[in-house]
């Protein structure tokens, strides 16, 4: 499964942060970073080799090839977190729902109304694992205290979780417990202790989102709770992969936005002009490290990613009901097939191995097949194949277009299920 290697922009600020220097020429773009949570040591497993960067100062996203060994549709995700601040211990009483109030209607904008409706349902999530602490964001799912956030916000090094606290928009601080996580979609649900009247967010149909729509991001970037930024939807069905190793790999179809998203926004809401949640903010692109003028982690550069609300709601409901979630599984390992003239141009997802007993094996896929489309959706990289499969429900039947020995053919595959 090809994984674009994005970093968690996640949960909090680096105390030693400095404004990025202004390069004289455009710099390469690093893998998006998890905006999520903040401060724990990153995984130490070696990264797959990357192609040497091309000279000329051109911009490009660091979308590396498949992390070896992960099944398409399977795999796991975790998080890189950065130290922010240690929250004080304590809990609080439940907060009553807040009505939408616009103080100056004559100067109100679409963002004003969206923020007024959605901001009361966005919370700040604090996690202390003993080896590090940080904060991210979350979205209230139910009045009795279920909150949706990112897995990398609550997961420490090695995938464990620590003590969790949640501060609601009215400033009340609660203790909370992790209900369950899904690293593959980078989602988690926590439940606030003692809450019974929280303002639950309203979710929109993310399949209806269009490029150019208004987008408003709400969360706690750099630890600054109740922060609102706005922009537009830059792209939909953007196949992105996050995580730096095989064990923390997450690939999904994301909503891309230019609304400012920074460390600490992870798990917060991306809402439309009506103030309804269309996505859960999860990752940002950052300037690559190791190049002149670059920082190891920089802030917003106008390329942020959110998990679509339809996916987030489905996964959250499964976690609440069972403690975990399922996703569609094809059952192959794949790498990006490169163009003969330019190795940086992908021409499909080349099957490296097929796992016996899986949907791919049942459909007759073979090593060496190159998948070029899922349904009417073109596939040029292994990450696009992974994201396209994960966007399907387990048990769904999809048509794959494959290239085998120079011939093109189609094959119907009934997807399996994995957790």
TrEMBL record:
GO terms for molecular function: serine-type endopeptidase activity. Residues 20-34 have a biased composition (Pro residues). Residues 1-56 are annotated as: Disordered. The chain crosses the membrane at residues 61-84. GO terms for biological process: proteolysis. It comes from the Bacteria. Residues 319-406 form the PDZ domain. InterPro entries: Chloro_Bact_Ser_Proteases, PDZ, PDZ_sf, Peptidase_S1_PA, Peptidase_S1C. Keywords: Hydrolase, Membrane, Protease, Transmembrane, Transmembrane helix. Residues 9-19 have a biased composition (Low complexity). SMART domains: PDZ. This is Putative serine protease PepD. It comes from Blastococcus xanthinilyticus.
